[in-house]
Amino acid sequence: MRIITFGSILSIFILMSTLDAQTNFIFPFDTSARWEYDIKSTFDPPYQSAGHTTIRFRKDTLMSNGKTYKAFSDARNLFFFLRKDSMRIFQYKGMDSTEFVRYDFAKKAGDTVQKLTQYSSIVLSADQMIPVFGTSRRTLSFQGDFVKDDVVDTIGIFSFTPQATDIWYQLTGAFVNGRTYGVLTSVLNKTDEIPKGIFLQQNYPNPFNPSTTLTFELPFQTRVSLTIYDLLGKTIVILLDKELNPGIHSVAWNASGYSSGVYFYILQGEGFRITKQMLLLK
Fold first, then answer.
1. Strand locations in the chain, DSSP E?
2. 1: number of Cβ within 10 Å
3. By CB distance 3.0 to 4.6 Å, which of 18, 154, 176, 212 could disulfide with 208?
4. For position 23, what pLDDT does the model report?
5. Contact 74, 34 (CB under 8 A)
6. Same structural domain, 85 and 125
7. Closest to 56 measured CA to CA, from 85, 35, 41, 42
8. pLDDT value at position 184?
9. CA 122 to CA 93: how far, in whole Å?
10. Is residue 240 a contact partner of residue 200, using CB atoms and an 8 Å limit?
11. Is residue 2 part of a domain?
């Protein structure tokens, strides 16, 4: 006859609580939420303020691998293309049209989240309760060669460093699921998604192989064309030529059939023409 002791029951309860905590981590992933960050530079003097910005998830974008992602971006910078699958957050890797796991909320501290190369991995370095905007919240820290992020349960990305940069973003306030956390300095209104001007972002990623994404902003409804040219000015491909509504638009280009080199992309419409260059490396 097996005797069940109080210690055994307590161990089972702790194990069940731990598993429940690992599977109940909430990562907000909707376009109605917004996050405000202080931008800090790691140059001398260290962590000097470099500005303030509001970041949101944008509408779904279909990538060349056949999967849809949401752009995590502010008005001028596109940081990541992310998608959510259960307890994992995948990041689109435009260099080869693949993806990798940036976050896995079912892992335990010390676990490998994603092995990137033979010598490089993303790990869950810490899982702890820390004070966030006056309340103790579960916070997961993910570390890797190009990932230094803290993610807070229910609130979202608390701090992050964009890939291959010396800039650090620290959350100061958020609006998630109708609730405000911390301090918000910008006013939330129905026109937040309407850009204030015409803007063509740098393609992401750049350099790229073989796919990249071109993003631009329109403050009004208009007909636009987005065309790619080679160094000699020859038209390579017209990515789009149609009337678009105001907002932020993204178009993917798969250059698998083209050779390495510098290419230009031009956004053109009535009264404007904007040119940027990009680098295809194979």
1. 34-41, 48-62, 68-73, 78-85, 88-93, 98-104, 112-115, 121-132, 135-143, 148-152, 156-160, 167-176, 179-182, 199-200, 211-218, 222-229, 235-244, 247-254, 261-269, 272-280
2. 2
3. 212
4. 55
5. no
6. yes
7. 35
8. 84
9. 15
10. no
11. no
Q: Which amino acid is at 225?
A: S
Which residue's structure tokens are 């740098």? 202
Q: How far apart are CA 100 and CA 204, in angstroms?
A: 16
Q: Which of 153, 182, 211 is the last residue of a domain?
A: 182
Give the model's pLDDT for residue 69.
93
Q: Are residues 154 and 271 in the same domain?
A: no
Residues with Cβ < 8 Å from 75, sequence gap 6 or more? 53, 54, 195, 196, 199, 217
In a domain, 18, yes or no: no
Instruction: Return d(Cα 80, Cα 90) in angstroms, integer.
Output: 10
**pLDDT at site 221:** 87
In a domain, 194, yes or no: no
| pLDDT tens digits for range 132-188 | 999 999 999 999 988 899 999 999 999 998 875 678 899 999 999 889 999 888 655
For residues 157 and 170, is the Cβ–Cβ distance under 8 A? Answer: no
Name the token pair of 275.
């040119």
pLDDT at 194: 67
Q: Give CA–CA dist 177/28, Å, rounded.
A: 8
Distance CA 38, CA 182 (A): 12
The tally of domains found in the chain comes to: 2
Residues of the chain with pLDDT under 70: 1-23, 42-50, 95, 164-165, 186-194
Torsion (CA) 156, 161, 164, 167 in degrees, nearest 10: 140
Q: For position 263, which CATH number holds?
A: 2.60.40.2550
Q: Six-digit token pair at 79?
A: 């940081």
- How far is 255 from 275, CA to CA, in rounded Å? 19
Name the nearest CA neighbour of 210 among 118, 94, 103. 94
